[in-house]
């Protein structure tokens, strides 16, 4: 996890530099100034941090419900067949695997942090709030599906004939990363929904450079979920719908927060 955290941090710096076209040191100073300018930002950050607790509680509750939970994976496989296997057979290449693992593990996380940072630095407060709200919406909507509509990862369903290419570039994935995500937490794909959310927000923010960066990154991440043998096409479709919805609601709540902030200036430090 130390290596992942380090690589994610490096990606955040690079993304902030590319997204703002400014010196990263200056960017971080600007972000810190904006971050501590309002109690609402701190409350939103606390809510985002609580997602990790929510994810932990979901997995604990999932363990308690294991005896009564149905497995919807056969139904999904019957619906879409060997789509993921076909993608793997068509595109698998030794040089491509580490690139996609890198995007799936580190760029994905950095994209969310970077989005929040870019909007804060540019004082685009509505979209800074929108990013935080949208992330929360993604998780709140996805968690009930993980509890009551369990779908196993494609590689973990033998009839699908899918290989887990993640292990080719990240052999310790199961030991290091698995505690953060259950094997049957597939539908909807949060990697898809959150990546799409960041791309949609960037497109609506007016920052053309950031829109290009997030759109390309989202496309690569979505492709990686199939190539690496993790998600189903059904997961991706549901994740895309969730991502678009979360982005739209995030913008709405961001605008609403800005109106309340303007009406109650005493909330600011």
UniProtKB/TrEMBL annotation:
<feature type="transmembrane region" description="Helical">
    <location>
        <begin position="127"/>
        <end position="149"/>
    </location>
</feature>
<keyword id="KW-0812">Transmembrane</keyword>
<feature type="transmembrane region" description="Helical">
    <location>
        <begin position="236"/>
        <end position="254"/>
    </location>
</feature>
<dbReference type="InterPro" id="IPR026841">
    <property type="entry name" value="Aur1/Ipt1"/>
</dbReference>
<keyword id="KW-0472">Membrane</keyword>
<dbReference type="Pfam" id="PF14378">
    <property type="entry name" value="PAP2_3"/>
</dbReference>
<keyword id="KW-1133">Transmembrane helix</keyword>
<feature type="domain" description="Inositolphosphotransferase Aur1/Ipt1">
    <location>
        <begin position="84"/>
        <end position="248"/>
    </location>
</feature>
<dbReference type="GO" id="GO:0016020">
    <property type="term" value="C:membrane"/>
</dbReference>
<dbReference type="InterPro" id="IPR036938">
    <property type="entry name" value="PAP2/HPO_sf"/>
</dbReference>
<feature type="transmembrane region" description="Helical">
    <location>
        <begin position="99"/>
        <end position="121"/>
    </location>
</feature>
<protein>
    <submittedName>
        <fullName>Inositol phosphorylceramide synthase</fullName>
    </submittedName>
</protein>
<feature type="transmembrane region" description="Helical">
    <location>
        <begin position="209"/>
        <end position="230"/>
    </location>
</feature>
<feature type="transmembrane region" description="Helical">
    <location>
        <begin position="38"/>
        <end position="57"/>
    </location>
</feature>
